[in-house]
User: Fold this.
Amino acid sequence: QVQLVESGGGLVQAGGSLRLSCTASGRTLRPYAVGWFRQAPGKERDFVAANSWRGGNIDYADSVKGRFTISRDNAGNTVYLQMNSLSPEDTAVYYCAARSYTITKVAGAYDYWGQGTQVTVSS
Assistant:
């Protein structure tokens, strides 16, 4: 069992930045592909970004390309989502998720999920 914990959410003005962090309680995330997803009220959970430790595969949703960056610390224990040029449309609960295989945009393919962290962007 992998217990994921997100942090770093909050309230920010449009144009601002936030960095989200995802860690696994008591273990490394190195063996796992990790994805970030977000869910706004009344909407489906959407893919944001994902990366893997092996091979360095990275993917982004078109809506965040050029604004968001997913990365890992050198030890592979924490996965970050740097979010720049935020807009009110980015307001959502952000979740990190992990799976043992390659990255994918499909939320249902991830085995482990965090509890989510709220990101609110004011206009």
